[in-house]
Amino acid sequence: MVDHETWSDAQSSATVSVDGHDLEVAYHEDGPEESGDPPVVFVHGIPTWSFLWRDIVAEVAEDRRTIAPDMVGYGNSAMSDDFDRSIRAQEAMLESLLEALDVDRIALVAHDIGGGVALRFAAHNPETVDQLVLSNAVCYDSWPVEFVSNLGLPSTAELDRGELEGRLDGAFVEGAYGEADPEFVDGMKAPWLTDEGHVSLVRNAVATNTNHTTEIDYGAITAETLLLWGEDDVMQPYAYAERLADDLADAELAPLSDAYHWVPEDRSDAYAERLREFLSDGGQ
């Protein structure tokens, strides 16, 4: 199990184009370069970064190449206060990153607002996404949630740093199923506890736009889909997974009990096992 500093040290970076801005994206890459299967791309949500996937990537990378970017405005990617961070913009980031890495087919695994990014990307690029895994993902009108909306208020940028950290502790400590792992909590908070990170988190939060998922043509998504969903989540309830299962062409429900919103962390062993099973069965 790696800590967030080790994870950061292992990241690479690429320059992507988003709305005419050239932005640096940090990404973690692991696994065999030539496995014969498309890379598995992991997209996180808010207020997390690619470190969310630390335990899952380690398992999947035994078989497959993995790519886990920090969305722009998050983690170790660009944080300057001059670009959009909405899921529409993050979709453009993902498209540009895959082009920079010369990747034309992927399996796509996503959580929270990363799920909204993944849904948009899969609808607009059905030839690229072979398999899609969504976990407690934003969709339809399921978001933003009050906690994130409050983070997006201009006054949040003026909060005492200790008060901001307290809000994040509320999300990651109180939001854990059972006792939170201090290493996970410290890692999740780390990008936001600098002056630049503090403001970037506020800008990320205010960019949560419901219209960017209500406008998706869900019927255009052709990827084989697994809805690997924490069953006890109150922020992105399981009922939305059931709705996605009805609307997507090829979707399987896979609820995980004893898990809240941070399901890759709450049930990391079970999550990794089910994910690897789904990936290995792809196309069969």
Summarize the structure.
The chain is an alpha/beta fold and 284 residues long. The protein has helices at 4-9, 54-60, 87-100, 113-124, 146-151, 161-172, 182-189, 195-206, 211-214, 238-247, 263-266, 268-281, and strands at 12-18, 21-30, 40-43, 66-69, 106-111, 129-135, 224-230, 251-256. Helix 2 runs parallel beside helix 12 (268-281) and helix 3 packs across helix 4.
| Low-confidence runs | none
Total beta strands:
8
Estimated helix fraction? 25-40%
Strand order of the largest sheet: 1-2-4-3-5-6-7-8
Strand content: 15-25%
H/E element sequence: HEEEHEHEHEHHHHHEHEHH
Which descriptor suits the 3D outline?
A: globular
Structural class: alpha/beta
Radius of gyration: 17 Å
Q: Count of helices? A: 12
| Overall mean pLDDT | 97
Task: Please outline the helices and strands.
Elements: H1 4-9, E1 12-18, E2 21-30, E3 40-43, H2 54-60, E4 66-69, H3 87-100, E5 106-111, H4 113-124, E6 129-135, H5 146-151, H6 161-172, H7 182-189, H8 195-206, H9 211-214, E7 224-230, H10 238-247, E8 251-256, H11 263-266, H12 268-281
Parallel strand pairs: 3-4, 3-5, 5-6, 6-7, 7-8
Antiparallel strand pairs: 1-2, 2-4
Helix pairs in contact: 2-12, 3-4, 6-7
